[in-house]
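Re: beginner question about structure tokens

> Can someone show what the tokenized structure looks like for a real chain? I only ever see the sequence side.

Sure, here's an example I had lying around. Input first:
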Amino acid sequence: MLDLTHRHKVLLYILIVILPTFLISFIIWEKQKNILFSKHEKEAVYMLDIHQSQIDRLISETKTRMETMALFIDQENNPNQIQRALKETLQQEPRFTGLYIANADGTIEIGTQPVPLHHDISSEKCFQSALATKKTAISEVHDKKLITICTPIVNQQKDVNGVLYATLSINYIQNIMNVLSPDLYIVVSDTNNNFLFSAGEKTKDVSKKSVQTDITQLPWVLKASVAPVKPLEISQVVLTYAAIIYILFNIIFMLILYYLLKRKARLEEEKIKAQKLELVGTLAASTAHEIRNPLTGISGFIQLLKKKYQSEEDQHYFSVIEKEIDRINEIVSEFLVLGKPTAHQHKPYDLNQIIDEVMPIIKSEINLHRTNFQVHMDRRDPIRIYCTKDHIKQVLLNLTKNALEAMDMNGSLELIVKKEANLAVIKVIDTGKGIPEKMMEKIFDPFFTMKDSGTGLGLAICKRIVDMYDGTIEIESKLNVGTTVTIKLPLSNKS
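And the corresponding structure tokens:
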């Protein structure tokens, strides 16, 4: 599974780097598209507001100019002077296409142009409104795209003597709009949605989305098409983010690849270590059997020699030989456990009872080392485990012995036994010199030891026994602080 081929790496690269980068870039593209479209929409609304203000201001200024001229005409009795003033105004104000004076009956009497064909304007709504309200009135767009403005000429007695009649070309307004925003396509229509004119350049890629606003001074509606978002506007931002995302996911990919390779190396290392341990165990077991047979014969001959040579000096030598033979037997026993200890019969035992049985041996060792010792055991319920009693005893003795040897006189040793869920937990805590961090990986290796004397098999045997019972053994250690060994064994459901 962890043997990553080139094909697997490519597939992993696609899943971790390519696909996420593409998906996130697509999301950013859509989001940026919406942001830019919203920006274009706001720009269109802003420009429409400017056009609205500009047109309203133009009409207001026109009304003001017309009302000023009406006051002048009311005070001036010379028709020639009035006509001259109208012509000067027409030359100065390009918004006007014609200026006329009509009497109260609607007949045009004076004008800047020859009298129009339809010189009677009495029927026009604009004229009638000016007479009725005595205020300036504006017409809708009519023939030749003109707007007419009628301002009543009112005397001091508030009577209407005539009407100042002016025509405005919407081309003038159209030109102003083209200058203000040549790139914005605007359609001007009346309140009945009838097309009047347009401003700005209409392009092929005009958006279907539009915004509109009403003109206050005129019965007009301005409608502007929102400029579509062009790919070039988005690409720069998206490419920047895509590059960052691509680099980030490449880093993640490299970390994952590193983790998988490291895990593979660790599993291979553990496999090799297990194979070595198996080999060592097999060799140790076979060697132990080969050693034990001659030792039995040697022990028998020593007993015969002890009877033959009774001197005190000879008996002393025999005692030394027997002690060394016992020590060899202990090492041979460890070799046998390091192998495959299948000769023992597993039964359910109360862990507390096992500890009680081995406690005298532990306390004797503690007395020799003058160590403070505390035991914490949960005796409310039996802590049953399925095991061989001698194996657990051996583990406890090995751990306590290691702890005592790691401490100076007057150190502290603590033994904790308890239940945790479906596990039996044993903790051996000492205040010894601790284990260097660089040595932690090797402490369970056979024949590895930090002591001046010893076989280096104690912890290896402990681990072998714990593994045999599907348990775990963990060691935490700090230099000059102490070491904590935690063993967890599954509880037995047998009674």
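Each token stands for a local structural state, so reading them left to right follows the chain. The chain has nine helices and 16 strands.
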